Amino acid sequence: MAGRLEGKRTIVTGAGSGIGRAAATLFAAEGALVLCADINGEAADDTAAGIGRAAVGLRVDVTRPEDCQAMTEQAAATFGGIDAVYANAGVDGPGRAGDLEVEEWNRVIGVNLTGVWLTVKYALPHLIEAGGGSLVLQASVGGVIGVPGIASYAAAKAGVIGLARQMAVDYGADNIRVNAICPGTVPTPLVRATYAKRGGFSATASAPADASIDEMIDAAKVRHPIGRLGTTGEIAQLALHLASDESSWTTGTAIVIDGGMSVA
Ligand code: NAD
Fold first, then answer.
1. Is the CB of residue 18 below 6 angstroms from any atom belonging to ligand 1?
2. Is 104 helix (H, G, I), strand (E, B) or coil?
3. Among 19, 30, 220, 230, which lies 20 to 30 A Cα-Cα from 185?
4. Helices (H) and strands (E) in the chain, counts
5. Separation of 66 CA from ligand 1 center, angstroms?
6. Is residue 101 part of a domain?
7. Considering the domain boundaries, does residue 29 fall inside one?
8. Global pTM?
9. Any idea what DSSP says for residue 175?
């Protein structure tokens, strides 16, 4: 039986860890060729090695235009084109607006918003050449609702949702679909880093000020009506749906996948 991404030529950024690694692995299991990109080149190579011949690993810093251009050129040359991109790479962004230094603001916006734009910018000509395709942009539930103490992160993620909407309008005629994914809490290294740096406010609004990271992760469950945090595989399943032709009439939308967090 053919896979849900059979023969699709794809790129996944942030593929060295967490949601990106799960998505790259799932895409390949469903028949895709996958360029696994990450600023941690060794981790990208590990993900690709775990997949086998359908994948290649590449060190890419998504904040660098030249890296993003080289990434798309390599994917197009290796696979013969590009059909779908999952712009997933991201960093933690704790801190209230008044407490952030300019460097910290720029770091988070640089990866989580500008990096998403650069990731898809250079892929556009290849998708147009292929007759269309799918761009999946990683946002967050923090781009949709207020979450305590993540000002730069939330601003970047809301920007990603706006970018998806805008690109859907501008590239619909090229048969390119653009959608954003807005996950609730999935306990990955990024979430652990956010909680570790939380300083001065409760990252989960339900854990005591002196809670350990594991205690904060446990306390975060209560904010998700379904009673547990998400898994990387659950987010990867939505990315697969949006990357595949199953979602052929879905574009410009931001899909929340959060165990009910945003409606509680
Ligand atoms: P993670 O830390 O496990 O993975 C993030 C990956 O991105 C890492 O491998 C890291 O090396 C890579 N990366 C960081 N900066 C990069 C750069 N400049 N260029 C290329 N790669 C870079 O975290 P995750 O939770 O899997 O995060 C993946 C995405 O999901 C992020 O965009 C994050 O904001 C988003 N997200 C996560 C959650 C969650 O609860 N985990 C919720 C909402 C959204």
1. yes
2. helix
3. 30
4. 10, 7
5. 20
6. yes
7. yes
8. 0.97
9. T
